[in-house]
Each structure stands twice: as structure tokens, then as C-alpha cells.
Amino acid sequence: MSSELSPIDKAKFVSAKHAAQFVESGMRVGLGTGSTAAWLVKCLGEKVRDEGLRIKGVPTSTRTAELARDVGIDVISLDEAKWLDLTIDGADEFDGELNLIKGGGGALLQEKIVATASDRMVVIADIGKEVETLGAFPLPVEVIPFGWQTTQALVEETLVSMDVLGRDSTLRMNGEVPFVTDEGNHIIDLHLKRIGNARQLALVLNQMPGVVENGLFIDICDTVVLGFGDGKVEIRDITDGTVETERFDLQESENLFSDLTK
Q: CA 194 to CA 164: how far, in whole Å?
């Protein structure tokens, strides 16, 4: 129930619940990965079950695919969909221009492919994800396993000439072994603290041999739906330059909270 959720979880829930309103029957929808995106999938599952919503969902990870199937969403591949009406996903950070850092959940490659194959990308987030300048959250860089240490050294050497405050990097681990993405790659997390020129950094990183993709999403997100723990939602649209607000009654959502936390 709502009283059992933390303020952050309530913020994630209301942002996801509002974003679910963008989805209409007949749409092909990219489904993101992460804790906030999981709320979105569950909210869409409720609409499938109770309102007869019929969509084709393209998941950005195996765990999102499993959750989507569990809640009754018809899951297809991006190759089957070819192009998407909408992608809804979370973010680890976003700035005032709606540029993002993503990849904390390790799905940045599929997330970026799906997002850029969509007419529109909507990000759902709690207020803690908004930053003045990107970089406090470690920037994920997906690399192939072959020669990953050489790739890491090359990345660190290149960071010397970039407008960043830190240059440390770490191989992401899963317990005592390296984390492996759905595509069989590793992730190097860059601890940059502040990224002065995100566009330049994204371009330079992707030119390096061994680098598959980086977690900077530049000029991809169109709308951010920002949730607050008191039920308020703020919708920022970069294309229209508009900011709107809405409020959900969390007390009325108790039954839905109960369903979604099972």
C-alpha cells in the first residue's frame, strides 16, 4: 500500500503512472530498464488487464522482457517492430537540456538503440535525478571483453584532454566476477564528477576501438516526467518549451500500490 512505500518509490510511481497516459492502443512502445521503468511496465500491465489496452512492447533488457510478459504485455523484438511510436525509460541523471546519463542498470546499449528508433522518448524520474551539470553519477561505457584493460587505459588517457573533474575508472563487477551485459560485454564506469562538454565526450568515447557505446544520451529525450513524494508530477517538454504539473491522490492509489508491489 502507499503507506508502505518510501517517498522516492512514491515519486517513481506517480511519474510512471502519468507517463502511462501517453500510451495508446495500437502503439509500439519501447520499455526501459531499471526501478522506475519497472513501475511503468506494471502500470501498463494494469491498463492491459483492466482497460483493454493493446500494445506491442519492445523491452530493453531480458529482465524487462520477463516483467512485461508477466503483466500481460505483448512483447516483440525491435526487428519485428522496425520503428516505435514511443519509448519510456528512466535515467540516472538529467540536466536542463534533457541530456541524460543512463546505464546504471547495465542496459545502456539496448536502451539507446531502442530510444533512437522511436518517434519520441519520455524519461520518468524522481526529483533526485535532476542535476545542473552531468557527471556526479558514474558514466557507464560498454566495452567488448577482448582487451578491456587496454581499452580502459586508452579511455583514461583520453580523459586528460576532456573537460571533466575526475578521471578514475572501474570495471563493473557482479560479485567477484565482471558484470556481463545482455550483449555479452563489460562495463567500465567513469568517475568524472562533472562533465563540461557532454556532446564532445560522447563523440570521442565512441571513436575508441573496443568501446561499444557510452551512457550519454544527447538530444534523444523529448520529455521528462518528474515525480515527487507527495504525488505531484511535473512534465517538462523540451520541444514545446512547456512545463505542466499534475497531482495524484496517493490515498486513492492504495489498491494499485498493493497490486504493483506483489
A: 5
Model confidence over 39-56: pLDDT tens digits?
999 999 999 999 999 999
Task: Enter the C-alpha cell of residue 220.
Answer: 534523444
At residue 1, the pLDDT reads 40
Q: Which residue has the cell 524520474?
A: 125
Q: What percent of the chain has pLDDT over 70?
A: 95
How far apart are the C-alpha atoms of 213 and 236, rounded to whole Å?
27
For residue range 105-128, what is the model confidence (pLDDT) as tens digits?
999 999 999 999 999 999 999 999
Separation of alpha carbons 141 and 215, rounded Å: 6
Cell of 202: 560522447
Quick check: 111 and 33 in contact, CB under 8 A? yes
Q: At what angle do helices 7-19 and 35-51 cross, to 10 degrees?
A: 50
% of residues, the chain, pLDDT over 90: 91
Q: How confident is residue 259, by pLDDT bands cut at 50, 70 and 90?
A: low
Helix axes 198-205, 148-159, angle to 10 degrees: 150
Would you name the residues annotated as active-site residues?
A: 111
Strands 232-237 and 186-191: unpaired
**Counting Cβ atoms within 10 Å, is residue 213 exposed (0-12), middle (13-18) or buried (19+)?**
buried
Give the strand pairing for 28-31 and 56-59. parallel
Task: List Cα–Cα distances, 148 to 90, 144, 153, in angstroms.
Answer: 28, 6, 9
